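User: You have something folded?
Assistant:
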Amino acid sequence: MKKLIPLVLFTILVACEGQPSATDEINYANSEQFNHNWAMDKIWEDGQAEVAHYDAEMVVYGRIRKFDNVYITVKEEFNKDFNVKTNDYERDDLFSVMKVNMFARFETENYPYHFLTSLFFKREKPEQLHKMTHTGQEWCGNTFKQFELTSSGYEYDYNSYFDGYGDGRMAIEGTDLLWEDQLPYVLRSLNFEDGLQFEKKVVDGQVNTKTRKPTIYQAQFDISDQDSVWHVQVALDDEKVNTYTFQKLYPNLLMSQKTWYGYNLKLSSVSRYQYWR
């Protein structure tokens, strides 16, 4: 047993050395279409959160479910040791992130659904998802998914009640991906221009109770000026098209969303306050 201890310690040390820290710079060529200082505005330094309520629709079991969808956007300080919000602000490994929480609860004929999705971005990198977690609960069971940025892409950890996907891990290649779930945030940071067009790889939406391998699309983005709002069309492919509208004035709040699969949003209200108090 004593001979095994050094070997075990060596294995642990090698494994730990192979893991990039949360603040390691991951190669990512900033796109000229986005303003990478978007989240550096002083509005995010006021110690409050932007709390936006949306009149939402989602198709579940073949029927449209209407509910209040809450989007919370707030600045937080992470520590690289645990890659979560810190409790100790005297640490020397802190870095700033923008957190976007999306909460939903709606009824079906037999039972309710609950979703909470948390997305995190380094403040200066609105394009690059740093971390995302998602939980879904209904009477059949619960699902947890986590996507964390690595040097080669994303590590995907999941746990669900579905056979074959109960507990596992997979890798998603590519650090230059956008995620469908981040579009309501990252598109706010666009360098808006009428007629602007570009392509980006986009990972399909994860707001569900499934833990399947994500699909990656080569999406086409088209931006147009529609008088009072900016209109953004995102064509994942020829048959899967989403549209988003944003306020023209900073902070370019999401006004509406319509997706090809029926997850639709329309802004109901927005305010800034400390929801945790």
The two ends are 52 Å apart (CA to CA).
